[in-house]
Amino acid sequence: MGKPLIRIENVVKQYTRDTQVLTVLDGLSLEVEEGDFVALMGPSGSGKTTLLNLVAGIDRPTSGTIHVGDAEVSSMSEGALARWRSQHVGFIFQLYNLVPVLTAFENVELPLLLTRLSKADRRRQVETALGVVGLSDRMDHYPRQLSGGQEQRVAIARAIATDPTLLVADEPTGDLDARSGEEILVLLERLNHEFGKTVVMVTHDPKAAARAHRLVHLDKGVLKEDVRAKEAAGSIGLAAAVEVSAGK
Amino acid sequence: MLGIPLKYNVRNLFVRKVTTSLTVAGIALVVMVFLCVMALGEGLTRVFTASGSDRNVLVLRQNSQSELQSGITRDQVPLVETLPGVEKDADGKPLASAELVVVLNLEKREGGSSNVTIRGVEEKGWKLRPGIRLTEGRMFSPGASEVIVSDGVSRRFKDTNVGEELHFGAYRWKVVGHFDAGGTAPDSEIWTDVEGMINTFKRNGYSSVLARTPDRAARDLFVAGLSSDPRLALEGKVERTYYDEQTATAAPIKFLGLFVGVVMAIGACFGAMNTMYAAVSSRTREIATLRALGFSRLSILASFILESVFLSLLGGLLGCVLGVLAVKLALSGVTGTTNFATFSEVVFAFRLTPALLLTGVVFSLAMGFFGGLFPAGRAAFTKITQALRQVG
Ligand SMILES: Nc1ncnc2c1ncn2[C@@H]1O[C@H](COP(=O)(O)OP(=O)(O)OP(=O)(O)O)[C@@H](O)[C@H]1O
Ligand SMILES: [Mg+2]
Fold first, then answer.
1. Whose CA is nearest to atom 2 of ligand 1?
2. pTM surpassing 0.95?
3. Do B292 and A83 count as a contact with CB atoms less than 8 A apart?
4. What does the alpha-carbon distance between residue B181 and residue A230 come to, in Å, rounded to a whole number?
5. Is A25 part of a structural domain of the chain?
6. B384 in contact with chain A, both atoms CB, cutoff 8 A
7. Is residue B116 within 8 Å of B153, Cβ to Cβ?
8. Is residue A158 part of a domain?
9. Ligand 1 atom closest to the CA of A218, numbered from 1
10. Total domain count for chain A?
11. Which residue is closest to B16 within chain A, CA to CA?
12. B195-244 pLDDT per residue, tens
């Protein structure tokens, strides 16, 4: 495995409500290597989403530093963070978060509108991304015309459209049936294995977590367990990916 | 680098069919009412402000508010007309017209009666008012008890068609022509020859003298000459100023238009704001997603203000269409009101000018902008992490 892509050092995240201070992350340190596939687990309220948001640069820690690649995201300004996110992070949400009034194509094109790409280049990249998730034939469909699993695949296409190094997924299978969830996991595995994306995924599902190369358990804002899974998990995932894409 | 595409906003407006339609209808109504009232004010203003030239001087007895209260004796007229500053015609005679103005109470076509100004003019009086033209029949002949009637008056008063005989008390005039003065003051008048009129009404003088001056310097010279001649006790008013002062009739209507417009616009503004707040809060998670993807606060702000402006633009355009229809269909006829300076009817039409329509559109854009400002601010400044937690 490569050099660390994500370096989290001594991060504290607190919320202050009235006079009460709620410490969600309590001096947490963690490194994630480039090309890794990390599953973040832990009981509800343990701070998984909070940690993911900090790494993805949509939130800032109360103290401590977070580096992603060369960027110190814990100290960047709002505008700089927005620009950084558009180039380096792909987001995958539990509820897909597609824009309902835009077609699959237009949803995937959204992050590309923030680049200098020409219309033709954007089209090519959208088509490639939708091809990777196996939805080339659903380009002009609106989210409401797609199943949950298909919506999540469009969302994944949107996340990879700008070819970011890091993918963050917050319970990507949480709203899906077992079969669709399986498809999504296979896809994430493939993005990690085949395209070299670093994936950080929050999940409650042990079966989903088993797909990852590394399991990180959070409890009450501190690291509880950090397990590196057997390398075998990766090849099983790949086999399943071939199966699924053959079934399409 | 592009912002959030406009189709995103347009489609969202069409998704919310009912609220969008209601908001558009509300704004359209405001713009329509505003346009109608302003068109009324515009029509009235035109009667007065478009009337009168900068180069014509209206000579009245000192301290008279209007021609009706003024009087000029026969022997004063040559003194006035030969003062320095008055332009000479090709025939070498001064370009001036001594005129007599009397108000008659005439019967209206729809019943009832109202005051109408009858004006006796000299031959040159026609020349002094360049916008005026005959639309039917011919000019009156002096001394023949003939009149020409403006189209506006003839539409509203009995016995004023060409060929008919107009009577008031014992007086009778033959209507020989109609004229149009392009929405200016003579459109509320009946004209005849001044000498005949002096005989008919047994007057021994005129009401006013209207004189043309070649330029501003000559005009000021003429006005100064008038006021410095103690024998005359007359004063000269620039014709345009004289009518401007009478626009007092239109001022309250325009003020009313603006007042009603602004009050209603504030209401419509809140309507747009409400609609946009609802739109923003139902799309909280979606907006947070856009921001997570990297769209800046500014582009979110611009996007939602644009959505609001587009919404109200639809209303503004619809309002213009309704306004034009209302003025064309319901308010098309010539209308009259009383000029409180002369107590005679002023004939005018609702005037919906392109400039007014543009004002209506700009008005609606302003409603959209101010209505959208705060909701757009909420969209742009809510914390992303908090907004992403919202379900639904
Ligand atoms: N804006 C906020 N203000 C106050 N408290 C917050 C805020 N956001 C999160 N919290 C609290 O922080 C704690 C951790 O939240 P977080 O969403 O990270 O948990 P999680 O591990 O993702 O839980 P789940 O599995 O239910 O998604 C929770 O107790 C939550 O109530
Ligand atoms: Mg969570």
1. A15
2. no
3. no
4. 98
5. no
6. yes
7. yes
8. yes
9. 21
10. 1
11. A101
12. 999 988 888 899 999 999 999 899 999 999 888 888 788 999 888 888 77
